[in-house]
Amino acid sequence: MAIQRHIFQINIIFILSFISSYASLHDGPPYNKYLQQESGYDFEAYPSYYSTIEDTKFKNSAKLQTRIYGFKTFQRLAASANTINVDDFGAKGDGTHDDTQAFQKAWQKACSSTGAAFVVPQKKNYLLKPIRFSGPCKSKLTMQIYGTIKASSDRSDYNTQGNHWLIFDSVQNLIVQGGGIINGNGKIWWQNSCKINKALPCKDAPTALTFYNGNNLIVKNLKIQDAQQIHVSFEKCVNVQASNLEVIAPEMSPNTDGIHVTDTQNIQISNCVIGTGDDCISIVGGSQKVQATGITCGPGHGISIGSLGSGNSKESVSDVTVNGATLYGTTNGVRIKTWPGGSGSASNIKFQNINMHDVMNPIIIDQNYCDQAKSCTQKSSAVQVKNVVYQNIKGTSASDVAMTFDCSKSFPCQGIAVQNINIAKAGGGAAKALCNNVNLQKIGTILPHCP
């Protein structure tokens, strides 16, 4: 029995030594970092666990403080060997040659392979027309964007697929990362917007990066800039992690929302820097279980739920938490906006631990939102806003009114709680609060407070 135990211990030592030796053979970044950046394993998304090896015959167990990722390494390294490089399919990456077909061929190969890594090489600039990365794929897939992907500026290229530039359609278990740039090249679209040139008809522009009908998505460590309209949109997705994204466009670029969430459940947005011409984050109908943490926002229109209920529609959003955000010079802070005449609800929402710097409308619920040329008439129905908490919010307001609850007479705001609010006017002095048709609970110091 002693010999058998001795053999068991030797086997454990051998396994640990093998893992350690294998890691030491690889130069470059630290081992964890190598796995995360090169092989696509996300340590934040999938925390490590401790494994237990049990000697069932002798009723002894040895808990090995070797993380499971040690064994996943072999799977990931084997998978990353199946590298699909767009250059091998004819992509030039010179910024002028149309690389759309090369990307399409590379995607077809990667999607039909097992454990593929689709690679966009660094120090190159790939020009793409609208492209659809269609699924479902054979297995998990990682797209490593090290270089730059730039959109065609020829608006006629979008005649067939006018609403999207890059779209991942029905792709499951996907990681998109790499530290590269996605450039929507949107200037030509902004110049032809009716919001810039009032003489022009109002038309939609493409969303730069869309994830549609996807499950188990990780999008991280990317810069998305100068979108034609919305920068990143998650539509009808489940289980999403979006982290360490830099999303930027000029303050005057119209409708360039940073991250847009629609009809999506269980999404975490973390550690993102967003500055655009519209909402930094917009959360609209059908979305549930949305968490945003560590957000830097500005310029832009703030962090918004809605708009909801446009065209007398029924829309609902629930279970949203914004915890930890800093806003600079935005036209709104944390906002809920609903159209008169709509129905549905915005419920179970929490805004907490937020700093405002020279922000217009730092806290606002607007149930009379009307973003159209003609004024909106009063309606008997409205989207119900209920169970909303504002906690630990401080800073300065660029407007006299720092807190606005403009709620519907027929559907007043219910269960609104404010706790530890301290917002002053940016130029000094006390700000004001406007409170109409709201059921309000106050806890702690509230500045400004409702009259």
From TrEMBL:
Gene3D superfamilies tied to this protein: Single-stranded right-handed beta-helix, Pectin lyase-like
Signal peptide: none
Subcellular location as annotated: Secreted, Cell wall
Tree of life domain: Eukaryota
One MF term in the entry's GO annotations: polygalacturonase activity
PROSITE patterns in the cross-refs: POLYGALACTURONASE
Catalytic function, reaction form: (1,4-alpha-D-galacturonosyl)n+m + H2O = (1,4-alpha-D-galacturonosyl)n + (1,4-alpha-D-galacturonosyl)m
Pfam families: Glyco_hydro_28
Main subcellular location: secreted
Listed SMART domains: PbH1
EC id: 3.2.1.15
Active site per UniProt: H301
InterPro entries documented for this protein: Glyco_hydro_28, PbH1, Pectin_lyas_fold, Pectin_lyase_fold/virulence
Residues spanning the membrane: 7-25
Keyword annotations: Cell wall, Cell wall biogenesis/degradation, Glycosidase, Hydrolase, Membrane, Secreted, Signal, Transmembrane, Transmembrane helix
GO biological process: anther dehiscence; cell wall modification involved in abscission; fruit dehiscence
PANTHER family assigned: PTHR31375
Family: Belongs to the glycosyl hydrolase 28 family.
Protein name (database record): endo-polygalacturonase
Organism: Ilex paraguariensis
Lineage: Eukaryota, Viridiplantae, Streptophyta, Embryophyta, Tracheophyta
